[in-house]
């Protein structure tokens, strides 16, 4: 499939701006993202509308926010408003849930149904509670609970969705969007086949929001979706990490934690050397001299006495 790339995407539709939006002509700084489009065979290259993520902003937004969205969130929201699938790849706590919520809001606005899938029951239960507080019209389907199955938004595990597709459930005729949370689980050797089967069995009319941690082959995955369902698939990727990481070194028997890489990704050689020295000092083998001697000639044992 052909593809085109556009770097540093910032969707500037006024409807998406929050109260803290920059003034006209200003751009958010520091939080840029990478945007690519995977096109299915036979559709040619992505047009300028896809690359610039323009859409009809005359309609009221499905959901507004009291804060300024990050560029990757704006890009994903614009793709959803264009009714095109999108893979959102970002670090943990970066705000991928905003993209899923917007797809749900679009479905409710357009009187359509949406399915939110997660890899485990506990996460499904958590998302059910959170989405119920936000949207109200939400149901839950897991192996343990079935709640409000007629809701516009259904939360379920991926295995439940596969079972529905196997049975030819009537619900699927009303579904416009499917959100796959933690889609990087597809790489799991045992359960990854479930995600693959579901994506193959879903009808071409469905649009997707894939939420993933940062993965190296995001565009390759989008190309597969584009070819599989004959539809464009956007890839929105950001390296921005809202929660800085600090790396500590701790060895068994050492004298505590040592900060070796700070939140700015700066390596601390002095701290590393201190940690290594501490670990070596506590793990050095004990001196064997002075131990019990064996018998025999020169051994000092009782058998050597004359």
UniProtKB/TrEMBL annotation:
Superkingdom assignment: Eukaryota
SMART domains (alphabetical): DEXDc
Any single GO BP term: maturation of 5.8S rRNA
InterPro entries hit by this protein: DEAD/DEAH_box_helicase_dom, Helicase_ATP-bd, P-loop_NTPase, RNA-DNA_Helicase
Compositionally biased region (Basic and acidic residues): 20-33
PROSITE patterns according to UniProt: HELICASE_ATP_BIND_1
Region (Disordered): 1-33, 278-306
Residue ranges of domain Helicase ATP-binding in the record: 77-233
Biased composition (Gly residues): 292-306
One cellular component term from this protein's GO annotations in UniProt: nucleus
UniProt-listed Gene3D superfamilies: P-loop containing nucleotide triphosphate hydrolases
Molecular function terms, GO-annotated: ATP binding; helicase activity; hydrolase activity; nucleic acid binding
Keywords recorded for this protein, A-Z: ATP-binding, Helicase, Hydrolase, Nucleotide-binding
PANTHER family cross-referenced by the UniProt entry: ATP-DEPENDENT RNA AND DNA HELICASE, EXOSOME RNA HELICASE MTR4
Name of the protein: Helicase ATP-binding domain-containing protein
């Amino acid at each position: 499939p052909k593809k085109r790339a556009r770097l540093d995407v910032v969707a500037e539709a006024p409807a998406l701006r929050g109260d803290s939006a920059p003034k006209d002509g200003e751009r958010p700084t520091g939080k840029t993202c990478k945007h690519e489009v995977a096109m299915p065979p036979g559709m040619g290259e992505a047009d300028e509308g896809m690359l610039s993520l323009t859409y009809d902003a005359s309609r009221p937004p499905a959901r507004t926010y009291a804060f300024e969205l990050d560029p990757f969130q704006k890009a994903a929201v614009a793709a959803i408003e264009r009714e095109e699938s999108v893979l959102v790849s970002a670090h943990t706590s970066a705000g991928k849930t905003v993209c899923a919520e917007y797809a749900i809001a679009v479905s409710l606005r357009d009187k359509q149904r949406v399915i939110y899938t997660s890899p485990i029951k506990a996460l499904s239960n958590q998302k059910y509670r959170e989405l119920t507080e936000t949207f109200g019209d939400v149901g839950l389907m897991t192996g343990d609970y079935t709640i409000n199955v007629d809701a516009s938004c259904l939360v379920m595990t991926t295995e439940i969705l596969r079972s529905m597709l196997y049975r030819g459930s009537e619900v699927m005729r009303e579904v416009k969007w499917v959100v796959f949370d933690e889609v990087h689980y597809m790489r799991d050797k045992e359960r990854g086949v479930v995600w693959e089967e579901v994506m193959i069995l879903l009808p071409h009319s469905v649009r997707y929001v894939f939420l993933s941690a940062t993965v190296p082959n995001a565009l390759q995955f989008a190309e597969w979706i584009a070819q599989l369902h004959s539809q464009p698939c956007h890839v929105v990727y950001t390296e921005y990490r809202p929660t800085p990481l600090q790396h500590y070194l701790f060895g068994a028997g050492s004298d505590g934690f040592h900060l070796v890489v700070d939140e700015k990704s700066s390596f601390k050689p002095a701290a590393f050397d201190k940690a290594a020295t501490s670990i070596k000092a506590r793990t050095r083998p004990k001196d064997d001299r002075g131990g019990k001697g064996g018998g025999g000639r020169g051994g000092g044992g009782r058998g050597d006495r004359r």
